[in-house]
Design a protein that fits this description.
Blueprint lengths: L17 H10 L4 E4 L5 E4 L4 H20 L4 E5 L4 E2 L5 E2 L3 E5 H5 L3 H5 L8 E5 L6 H13 L4 E6 L4 E6 L5 E4 L3 E3 L8 E3 L5
């Protein structure tokens, strides 16, 4: 089957079922797709080179920490999708799942969109991202079980920290972020982000 490209104007909403989403995603490997809890298909455009470089720094630091602490959990990059408890299928820019939650999944669940919300998520705002849309997405992660999330707004040099049971904390131009109790001894350096 040959895939065709198409554009959906921003003012239109395209709704699909989870099965239709899975079928679309399986033939469009080059597209970054997400599905909202109410069935809205989201096609995320590719980022520019600078946000890609910034995201690589974030993902690499998380991956190195996870590889050094394999009994704690696993790190994931932006192409991995997760089926959240509310039915949304989301792909954080970087994420981490605790080992016990990952090991509780079947092999089939691990190979598909894992049916869980990561314990930790990062979203990096690119020029095309609307801040309020990302803030809603971060709250959705927390509402669906994420224990810690960082919304990194490189344009404004701010980080919004989302945690279970706490108000959102806004940090101005931090040099590093702590994984708190969720990612023991993990520190993300932001020197390559600003």
């Amino acid at each position: 089957m040959q895939a065709s490209t198409f554009e959906v104007p921003r003012e239109l909403t395209l709704r699909v079922t989870q099965a239709e989403f899975a079928a679309i995603a399986s033939v469009n490997h080059d597209l970054q797709l997400e599905l909202t809890a109410n069935g809205e298909l989201i096609v995320n455009p590719p980022t520019g080179s600078e946000p890609s470089r910034q995201n690589m720094s974030i993902t690499a630091q998380l991956w190195l920490w996870a590889e050094s602490n394999p009994t704690l959990g696993l790190a994931f990059e932006s192409s991995g999708g997760f089926e959240l408890p509310n039915g949304a299928i989301r792909s954080p820019d970087a994420s981490w799942v605790s080992r016990n939650r990952w090991d509780a999944l079947s092999q089939g669940e691990k190979e598909d969109f894992a049916p869980l919300c990561p314990d930790f998520v990062v979203e990096l705002r690119s020029k095309s991202d609307r801040l309020n849309t990302l803030q809603d997405k971060m709250q959705e992660y927390i509402d669906n079980g994420a224990r810690l999330g960082w919304l990194i707004d490189a344009q404004n040099k701010k980080v919004e920290v989302y945690s279970q049971g706490k108000e959102v904390e806004v940090l101005d131009q931090p040099t590093q972020l702590s994984g708190e109790g969720v990612l023991p001894v993990f520190t993300l350096s932001l020197r390559n982000i600003w």
